[in-house]
């Protein structure tokens, strides 16, 4: 919020601070010279001096660079859809992800399967799909709060024997709020008590009316355990993706989002990142959240070392000075110096806001004790 202290406002208006303090008193606001005052009060005071104050949205330049895209439409090419799997506990999200991965990775590459990175890509008829392990609801929410849209399509897994459950509804709300289309995978169809119609009825009440009932939500019956219905599900994903016309510009510096991160004893900070635009290369100077560095090495979802990663590709990188947070945006800079300066600035800001948060908590605690 574009707030000012009493002293700053007085200076801007060319008045004595004491005069401003008096005016504020008339408004019922007791303030000292160094106190920040609300926009509304600033506007009222300024009006008395015939000055109109408009709220200016402040743009932090670093932040701006992290968000803005200036791609010429001519530079855009089709990119793979990024799919997340959500659903209630035990409805089969992990089993489904594993089943898709297993069914699509040829035997020779089997060694790569044990490599666990939180995301992988499969290829169907020359078309790629990127799957992200379900981010915790918290990570998903934090990404959304920052306006980072990572997911293009949500697969909502609902066990056909169990039906709609609280987290099913939560997932629907998340996807709707983020404006992400939902494909329903009605799982555990192999179970004798499976009742897909009941699932459809329940979800229809939450706005997911099946196509076969005149709505526009795709339902695919699957059994993650028996690996049945997976091809149909993948086909539907590609169909929905085609309608979305997902595009990116591979010929620019990369930017994207941190999917997961950890501290590795030998390799230091390790982060799985999703490249959302541009191409990420080994040696690139990078800022991720409040961390920075140079991409030292990149490993793909099959555990193979690679030199570059284009749009919608998940890769594991090393070379950051500290461990970034899942959900943090990352961006590549041309110059290492700039990445370092911005990274350090952001780290400082983060520390300051953490300090502020801490002092606030203690103050609250004090009040509680009184
Ligand atoms: P959380 O990560 O705990 O939220 O669970 P999840 O949604 O990842 O479920 P998970 O894949 O761990 O599966 C839960 C249980 O359901 C496991 O025992 C699976 O073997 C079983 N399961 C998953 N898919 C199927 C299926 O298609 N049919 C049957 N019969 N069982 C399944
Ligand atoms: Mg799971």
TrEMBL record:
Span-the-membrane segments of this chain are none
Binding-site list for GTP: 87-94, 133-137, 187-190
Location of the region described as G-domain in the Swiss-Prot/TrEMBL record = 81-229
Q: Which residues form the Tr-type G domain?
A: 78-247
Cellular location of this protein?
A: Cytoplasm
The role this protein plays is: One of the essential components for the initiation of protein synthesis. Protects formylmethionyl-tRNA from spontaneous hydrolysis and promotes its binding to the 30S ribosomal subunits. Also involved in the hydrolysis of GTP during the formation of the 70S ribosomal complex.
Q: Which family does it belong to?
A: Belongs to the TRAFAC class translation factor GTPase superfamily. Classic translation factor GTPase family. IF-2 subfamily.
This chain's protein is named: Translation initiation factor IF-2
Gene from which this protein is expressed:
infB
Full protein stretch here: 176 to 545 of 751
